[in-house]
Design brief:
By secondary structure, the chain is an all-alpha fold. It has two domains: 38 residues, no CATH class; 64 residues, no CATH class. Helices cover 51% and strands 0% of the residues. The chain has five helices and no strands. Helix 3 packs across helix 4. The longest helix is centred in the C-terminal third of the chain and has 16 residues.
Length: 111
């Protein structure tokens, strides 16, 4: 929570003037993105689910033991184990996980 506060925090000089260049997210992009992530979708086919719920459901359906059975009911113990393994691998794998995604972004934003 402290990290989120630091990211969304504002920096003010002693005279009270805001200094955006000293802020991590001066345009509050993260706050807007997180708000949108949990705001229910009004499209009828999503039944009021928030985008985060849809993303979690897709991750679970794709990474269960047998993804072809995604529509056959709830996850079982083995499904949860497979989902967990795949999420951990994505978060920690430097060659094909989140770190690689960060590198793509980093390379795409170099000037």
């Amino acid at each position: 929570m402290a990290l989120l506060a630091k990211v969304s925090g504002r920096y003010f000089a002693q005279d009270g003037k805001e200094i955006c260049r000293r802020e991590i997210d001066p345009n509050q992009v993260l706050a807007v993105a997180l708000g949108n992530l949990v705001t229910p979708i009004q499209d009828g086919s999503f039944k009021g689910q928030a985008p985060l719920e849809v993303i979690i459901d897709v991750i679970a359906d794709v990474n269960r033991l047998d993804p072809t059975k995604a529509y056959e009911g709830t996850l079982n113990r083995t499904d949860y184990a497979f989902v967990s393994e795949n999420v951990v691998d994505f978060l920690t794998n430097k060659e094909r996980g989140l770190e690689q995604f960060y590198e793509v972004i980093r390379q795409g934003t170099k000037f």
